[in-house]
């Protein structure tokens, strides 16, 4: 088909040199695909290289502790990906004797491996003729063919997958899939696509009908929740600092943080002091100092976190607590890690 041939020709001339494109090892491909979910290539690349250096094989990753994995993942966000990554590594190492499944349907049995990731590994590592469908693919196909199905709808994955599979070159599935994703990432971008220099312009419905900005259709909006975090850096005379692990489900599961007071709305300094006094008796508190005068706004995909840090110096030694110089050893949410590095 002319679409496929034009796309592959564009890819041969324009593809980026990326480290995971130099291998057919399913471990490397899987690792890169998990990291690239909701992450830009420039941000994911150094993490990919560091992971391979620390864990050259899937067995090495499986034998690591969760804290080691989370620490290395620190700053990449969406930490459930790291926990699933670790779980899947154990699954492959122990249930599959260190060998990744070689087919799309078997790959789907791995935790954290959905239809997109399974298709990517199956096609790139094992030449299985199965098309990938990610955000880039939705965008390219919706624009070129004028598909107005809402990509947030339950019908979209099946419809776009069927369309992509009709276009797939069965002799070159790896090249086709990478070409389609690369084209969406570099040429047919969400904003300001390079339509006037596009090799597919000749038959693009969106370009012809001036609907480039309207496609793909996505009507579902994510509700944004505001949360107010007040972190307490509690330090005793021995310079030990109190840490806690986020064990509840939700953001930053199993990462470390300073003791937290969370409120649904902003609170006054007087109200915060009352809350602190309900946790630590006033007689053991030497001083309370507000560390950041300006609230830190940390945006997640569905939450806005308004964060402030307070230093609480105690006049009594704590039984718990870690030496200040040991903080670097713990996996933190990146906003806390950056605060530690700064202050």
UniProtKB/TrEMBL annotation:
Co-factor: note: Binds 1 [4Fe-4S] cluster.
This protein's name: Adenine DNA glycosylase
Documented EC number(s): 3.2.2.31
Listed Gene3D superfamilies: Helix-hairpin-Helix base-excision DNA repair enzymes (C-terminal), Hypothetical protein, domain 2, Nucleoside Triphosphate Pyrophosphohydrolase
Keyword field: 4Fe-4S, DNA damage, DNA repair, Glycosidase, Hydrolase, Iron, Iron-sulfur, Metal-binding
UniProt GO MF annotations: 4 iron, 4 sulfur cluster binding; 8-oxo-7,8-dihydroguanine DNA N-glycosylase activity; adenine/guanine mispair binding; metal ion binding; oxidized purine DNA binding; purine-specific mismatch base pair DNA N-glycosylase activity
Function noted in UniProt: Adenine glycosylase active on G-A mispairs. MutY also corrects error-prone DNA synthesis past GO lesions which are due to the oxidatively damaged form of guanine: 7,8-dihydro-8-oxoguanine (8-oxo-dGTP).
Reaction catalyzed: Hydrolyzes free adenine bases from 7,8-dihydro-8-oxoguanine:adenine mismatched double-stranded DNA, leaving an apurinic site
Protein biosynthesis found in the keyword field: no
CDD domains: ENDO3c (cd00056), NUDIX_DNA_Glycosylase_C-MutY (cd03431)
Domain HhH-GPD: start-end pairs: 35-186
Gene Ontology terms: biological process: base-excision repair; mismatch repair
InterPro entries cross-referenced by the UniProt entry: A/G_AdeGlyc_MutY, DNA_glycosylase, Endonuclease3_FeS-loop_motif, HhH-GPD_domain, HhH_base_excis_C, HhH_motif, MIG/MutY, MutY_C
Family membership: Belongs to the Nth/MutY family.
Names of the cofactor(s): [4Fe-4S] cluster
């Amino acid at each position: 088909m002319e679409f496929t041939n034009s796309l592959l020709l564009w890819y041969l001339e324009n593809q980026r040199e990326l480290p995971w494109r130099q291998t057919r090892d399913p471990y490397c491909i899987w690792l890169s695909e998990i990291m690239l979910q909701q992450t830009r290539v420039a941000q994911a690349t150094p993490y990919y290289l560091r992971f391979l250096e620390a864990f050259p094989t899937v067995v090495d990753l499986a034998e690591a502790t969760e804290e080691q994995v989370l620490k290395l993942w620190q700053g990449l966000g969406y930490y459930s990906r790291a926990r699933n990554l670790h779980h899947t590594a154990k699954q492959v190492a122990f249930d599959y004797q260190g060998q990744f499944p070689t087919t799309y349907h078997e790959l789907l049995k791995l935790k954290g491996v959905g239809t997109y990731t399974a298709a990517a590994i199956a096609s790139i590592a094992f030449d299985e003729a199965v098309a990938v469908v990610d955000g880039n693919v939705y965008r390219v196909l919706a624009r070129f063919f004028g598909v107005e199905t809402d990509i947030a709808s339950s019908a979209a994955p099946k419809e776009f997958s069927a369309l992509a599979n009709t276009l797939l070159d069965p002799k070159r599935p790896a090249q086709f899939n990478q070409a389609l994703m690369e084209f969406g990432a570099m040429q047919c971008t969400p904003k300001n696509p390079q339509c006037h220099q596009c090799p597919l312009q000749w038959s693009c419905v969106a370009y012809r009908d001036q609907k480039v900005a309207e496609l793909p259709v996505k009507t579902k909006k994510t509700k944004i929740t505001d949360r107010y975090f007040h972190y307490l850096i509690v330090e005793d005379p021995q310079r030990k600092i109190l840490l806690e692990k986020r064990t509840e489900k939700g953001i930053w599961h199993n990462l470390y943080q300073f003791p937290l007071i969370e409120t649904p709305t902003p609170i006054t300094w007087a109200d915060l002091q009352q809350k602190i006094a309900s946790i630590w008796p006033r007689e053991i508190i030497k001083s309370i100092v507000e560390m950041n005068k300006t609230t830190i706004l940390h945006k997640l995909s569905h939450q806005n976190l308004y964060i402030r840090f307070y230093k609480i110096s105690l006049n009594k030694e704590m039984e718990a607590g870690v030496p200040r110089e040991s903080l670097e050893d713990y996996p933190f949410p990146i906003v806390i890690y950056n605060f530690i590095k700064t202050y």
